[in-house]
Structures are given as structure tokens and as C-alpha cells.
């Protein structure tokens, strides 16, 4: 009925005889002393002796029981079965809560904590019988229910995987309670295998209260006893540069978080395949997040498989972040014009002769015959009124995620432009036409942060202010999109409108010929067009 874990202590039960031996050794023989015959004193003596003997026997029993229980405590008795006839072969419902959170990927030795945990699971499973009902629960915060595995149904340990999320302890305990209620066997066991790094928010008071009500034996098996925990994680990364060009700096931003309890230093490196492009040393306070900026200059076209990498720590899984950057060898642009503007054509030919832009000029009457799927960008300069069929073709072009640049002219009215843009963007941006009243009057531009970011790559690093061109006339527009350039009056010169589909429409409020201003003669004209095309194709 009883088993003893430490049976070597059982011989010490003989020590229970020590009080009896001591009592026998200390017994005193009564000496007879002559005394006067007093009847009442003799009766009192006999009563007193009987009481003393009872007290002595009780004291001896207490001392013996104390020694017996002390020895049994060291022997650690276990109850094999309460009733051998009724509980023989009693089944067990066991639920193993396996922590598969990201911290279990920590590697403090040859094996990771999760690999140690799966080995422990195997050992625990081997202790159960075939008739026992054993379940393994892993909990992920990204799922409505924790993963439940009945190992009696073709279970394999290879099914257990590490998650990128925290272990949902509360949900796992709730599911355990459901399993205990569904399989009410006499023996109930709940086993938690974890590194004990659960965040406080995942262990609520209600979960602890439910755990106490399970009426099950609860065991915690800790897989890691290393209190020092060092982990820097690359939480996110992005390309900050609005334009990507050959031999121009490309800026990347990475967010690094220190999940350890001490300050940590590490190198963050940027690789393209085996080639290191940039590297920086960072130091982050405990439980803090730091933004790091890396810069590199691409020198060839094609795809860049970028990898941001931190030095090795306890968790390797979150030390890398992957980005893909594609610099096409050739960007094909279709320039559609109604009237020949020699200044614009000459500027586009200059841009096309250098770099990876391939610009094809075509008359407005011929653009529908072009294979639009081969072009990444369409430019319409002074478009005339379009029917529904050409507009549908433009919407299909925008639906592919490609963009459109619209340069207004005088061949169409404000109403016609608004009708065209409404069918493309569901917006009517144009209000009226602004024109100077005398030859010495003009409309100036003001420098905006968005416009400066667009033009800054063409200037020297120390240049902060530039002389901007002036205009003689323009179409007054509402601010209905992302503003890049504007006049001193606040009216937009260039803004980006979202199309009905995926693409965008880059809309100017002024033509680019000499009739509209001195822009074609200004030194910013060609750089402006180049940056506009780069942004429109990159976006």
C-alpha cells in the first residue's frame, strides 16, 4: 500500500525504543522506610503512584511517536493506491503546458531551451500508461485557441515548434480546465515546462484563481537556471530614402530593442549577400529601444538582398532583418504630348541619355497604340479631352500599381481637366485660372520641406537655400493630396493624388514651357524633372 522514496531511513525506526530503554534504566527501586501506621496516607500514596505511571507512559508514547514520524518524514512515504480493489488501474488525465514562446529559443549551451523542453516532454510522456489521456498545449497570442495535441493519436515531437509570440498562460490554463472536465479521471496532473520568463500581463489573477480550482497536481519544470539573459532584437527596419538612384546615398533605419536587464553593446551590420555595406556600434540601455540609421551607396543596378544583422546573443532568431531593394536596369517612360514643347523634349532627352531612364515621346493621337504594359510611368503634357475608353485604359494602367504625371496646358478647359481627374481619382482639384496682370508681375514659389527633400540630393551637402523659379500663370488647385511644391500664396504647384485603383497621379498646376514662367531657363529645370520622374517611378 505504501512505497518509500527514501527507504534507507527506515532502519532508524529502531530509535523509537530509546525512550523505553531510558525509562527502564532510570527506574528507581522503592525503599521501605518504617513509619507509623496511617491508613489514609497509604491510600493517597497508591493513587499518586498510579497517576505518575500513566503520565510516564504517555510521555514515553509521545517520544516514540515523535521519533517514528520524524523517520517516516525522511523516508518520504507515497500512497500507491487508496483502495487496492477499487483504484487498481486508475487512469490519469495529464495536461502538459509547453512554453513555446520566443524566449525558449535562448541558447545558453549546445541546446536551446526549447530543445531541452522537448526532451523533457519525451521523458514525461514515457512515465504514463497507454490508458492514460495526455495532452500537450502550446499557447500563442496570435491564435484564438492554444494548440492542443493528444499524444496518443500519432503524435510526433517534431510537431512542436517555437512561436514568435508570448505564451498565453491564461488561455492555456482555461483550456486545461476544459480538458479536465471533459476527461474526469481520478488522477489529474498539470505540468508546466517553461523558462519562467512569462510577462506579468500574461498571468492574470483570474488565471491563478482558476489554477487553484483545478484540483490537480501542478508541477513546474524549469528548463533554464541561468539568470543572466542577454538579447537584442531587430524589431523593424525600413528604407528612409524617398528616391533610390545609383551612386547616391540610401538611408535605412532600424529599431533595436534590448530585452535584457543590463546595458548591451553590439555591432549592427548591413550585408548584400556576402558583401558588408555598412556597420555601426550601438549601446542600448536595459529594456529600451533605439533607432539606428545606416547609409550605403548602390553602385550597380539589379536586386539587393539586404540583411541587417546583430552580434550573437542568447536568442539568434531575432538578430536578422531582411529587406529587398530593386534598382531596375531600365525604367521605361512614355511621354505623351499634344503640342511640341522643345524645352521639355530637350530636358527629357538629356535625362534619358544618362542613367536608367528610357523616355519615349509620342504624340497624343498615337499613345493608344503603344504597349502600355511595358512602361512604368505615363506623362501627359497638355492632354485634350478624353473619351470613356481612353480613361478606362488609364484606370487599368493605374490599377497595376503604376503612376501617371499630368502637366496641364491650354488645350483643355478647367471643366475638362476636372472631369478627367474625377474619373481617375474621384476628385475635382482645379478651381480657376491665375494669370499675371503686367509684365513685371510673377508668382513665386516658397521652399517646403517635402520639396526640399525631393531636390536635396542634387545639391551639395551644405546648401540649405536655393533660388526658385517664377511663374506667369497657373491653374489654382485645392489641396487634396500630398503636397510637394506650392506658391507663396499657398496654392499647390505639385501634389500627389491617390487614384481609384492602386496607383497615384502626380498633378502639376502649371505647364512647363516658357509661356508659363522662367522654369525652362532655370538651372533647376532638368534636376526637377529627373527627381520627379525618379519619385514617380519609385513610388
UniProtKB/TrEMBL annotation:
This is VWA domain-containing protein. NCBIfam families: two_anch. The chain crosses the membrane at residues 6-25, 54-75. Residues 1-77 form the Aerotolerance regulator N-terminal domain. Residues 95-196 form the VWFA domain. Gene3D superfamilies: 3.40.50.880, von Willebrand factor, type A domain. CDD domains: vWFA. It comes from the Bacteria. Keywords: Membrane, Transmembrane, Transmembrane helix.
Amino acid at each position: 500500500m505504501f512505497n518509500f522514496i527514501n527507504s534507507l531511513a527506515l532502519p532508524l525506526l529502531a530509535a523509537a525504543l530509546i525512550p523505553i530503554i531510558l525509562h527502564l534504566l532510570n527506574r528507581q527501586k522503592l525503599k521501605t522506610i518504617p513509619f507509623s501506621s496511617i491508613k489514609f496516607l497509604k491510600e493517597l500514596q497508591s493513587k499518586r503512584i498510579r497517576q505518575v505511571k500513566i503520565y510516564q507512559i504517555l510521555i514515553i508514547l509521545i517520544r516514540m511517536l515523535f521519533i517514528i514520524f520524524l523517520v517516516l518524514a525522511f523516508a518520504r512515504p507515497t500512497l500507491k493506491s487508496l483502495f487496492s480493489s477499487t483504484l487498481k488501474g486508475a487512469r490519469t488525465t495529464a495536461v502538459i503546458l509547453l512554453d513555446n514562446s520566443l524566449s525558449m529559443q535562448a541558447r545558453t549551451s549546445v541546446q536551446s531551451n526549447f530543445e531541452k523542453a522537448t526532451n523533457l516532454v519525451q521523458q514525461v510522456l514515457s512515465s504514463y500508461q497507454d490508458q492514460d489521456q495526455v495532452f500537450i498545449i502550446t499557447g500563442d497570442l496570435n491564435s484564438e485557441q492554444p494548440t492542443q495535441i493528444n499524444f496518443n493519436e500519432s503524435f510526433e515531437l517534431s510537431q512542436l515548434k517555437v512561436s514568435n509570440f508570448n505564451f498565453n498562460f491564461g488561455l492555456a490554463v482555461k483550456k486545461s480546465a476544459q480538458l479536465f472536465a471533459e476527461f474526469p479521471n481520478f488522477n489529474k496532473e498539470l505540468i508546466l515546462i517553461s523558462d519562467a520568463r512569462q510577462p506579468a500581463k500574461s498571468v492574470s489573477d483570474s488565471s491563478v484563481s482558476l489554477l487553484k480550482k483545478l484540483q490537480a497536481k501542478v508541477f513546474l519544470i524549469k528548463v533554464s537556471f541561468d539568470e543572466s539573459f542577454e538579447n537584442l532584437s531587430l524589431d523593424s527596419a525600413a528604407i528612409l530614402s524617398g528616391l533610390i538612384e545609383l551612386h547616391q546615398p540610401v538611408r535605412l533605419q532600424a529599431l533595436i530593442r534590448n530585452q535584457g536587464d543590463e546595458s548591451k553593446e553590439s555591432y549592427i551590420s548591413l550585408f548584400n549577400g556576402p558583401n558588408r555595406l555598412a556597420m555601426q556600434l550601438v549601446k542600448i540601455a536595459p529594456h529600451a529601444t533605439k533607432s539606428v540609421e545606416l547609409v550605403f551607396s548602390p553602385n550597380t543596378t539589379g536586386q539587393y538582398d539586404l540583411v541587417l544583422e546583430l552580434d550573437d546573443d542568447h536568442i539568434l532568431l531575432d538578430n536578422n532583418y531582411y529587406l529587398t531593394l530593386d534598382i531596375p536596369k531600365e525604367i521605361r517612360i512614355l511621354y505623351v504630348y499634344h503640342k511640341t514643347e522643345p524645352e521639355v523634349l530637350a530636358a527629357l532627352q538629356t535625362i534619358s541619355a544618362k542613367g536608367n531612364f528610357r523616355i519615349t515621346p509620342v504624340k497624343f493621337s498615337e499613345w493608344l497604340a503603344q504597349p502600355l504594359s511595358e512602361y512604368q510611368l505615363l506623362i501627359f503634357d497638355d492632354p485634350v479631352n478624353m473619351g470613356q475608353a481612353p480613361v478606362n485604359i488609364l484606370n487599368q494602367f493605374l490599377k497595376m500599381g503604376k503612376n501617371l504625371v499630368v502637366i496641364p496646358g491650354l488645350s483643355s478647359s478647367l471643366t475638362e481637366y476636372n472631369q478627367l481627374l474625377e474619373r481617375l481619382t474621384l476628385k475635382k482639384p482645379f478651381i480657376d485660372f491665375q494669370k499675371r496682370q503686367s509684365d513685371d508681375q510673377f508668382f513665386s514659389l516658397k521652399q517646403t520641406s517635402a520639396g526640399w527633400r525631393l531636390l536635396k540630393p542634387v545639391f551639395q551637402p551644405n546648401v540649405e537655400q536655393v533660388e526658385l523659379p517664377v511663374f506667369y500663370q497657373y491653374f489654382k488647385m485645392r489641396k487634396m493630396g500630398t503636397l510637394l511644391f506650392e506658391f507663396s500664396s499657398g496654392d499647390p504647384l505639385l501634389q500627389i493624388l491617390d487614384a481609384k485603383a492602386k496607383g497615384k497621379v502626380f498633378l502639376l498646376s502649371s505647364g512647363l514651357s516658357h509661356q508659363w514662367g522662367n522654369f525652362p531657363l532655370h538651372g533647376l529645370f532638368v534636376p526637377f524633372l529627373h527627381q520627379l520622374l525618379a519619385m514617380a517611378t519609385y513610388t
